[in-house]
Specification:
5 helices; 5 strands; alpha/beta; five-stranded mixed beta sheet
């Protein structure tokens, strides 16, 4: 197991928490100096908050832990490609590396529809590593939506 896979497996644990709570199963962690300093899972339904994505919760926790708005020496691991809102938060918090599991062809902003973190027009860029434990991330999402969509 690679280092990225090891960290992503922790993000998958967060996604499982979301799954158990009937949330879209996406999980995220922020790593700093080989330590998880922020973690989160989707809580949109629970909090009735469209911004309560796993990445947003993990970023907020990490910023609180470091008592800083900047996460310059951190890496974000998330089980699904970040959406435009989360990609914007990543840029604004100065996270230098994003590692994600499966692509999101409908909302993805780190390679699918947009490439916000690597946009040279912005004042900060993040390196994106895609596809780490993508099968595991994708299967959890497919299982979640299996009984929720008409015709599934």
């Amino acid at each position: 197991m690679t280092e990225h896979e090891r960290w992503m497996s922790l993000a998958l644990r967060e996604a499982a928490h979301a799954y158990d709570r009937h949330e879209v199963p996406v999980g995220a962690i922020v790593v700093h100096n080989n330590t998880v300093i922020g973690k989160g899972y989707n809580q949109v339904e629970l909090l009735k908050d469209a911004t309560a994505h796993a990445e947003m919760i993990a970023i907020t926790a990490a910023q609180s832990h470091l008592d800083s708005k900047w996460l310059k020496d951190c890496c974000l691991y998330v089980t699904m490609e970040p959406c435009p809102m989360c990609a914007g938060a990543i840029v604004l918090s100065r996270i230098p590396v994003i590692v994600f599991g499966c692509y999101d062809p409908k909302m993805g902003a780190c390679g699918s529809l947009y490439t916000i973190p690597e946009d040279k027009r912005l004042n900060h860029r993040a390196h994106v590593i895609a596809g780490v434990l993508d099968a595991e991330s994708g299967s959890l999402l497919k299982e979640f939506f299996k009984g929720r969509r008409p015709g599934a």
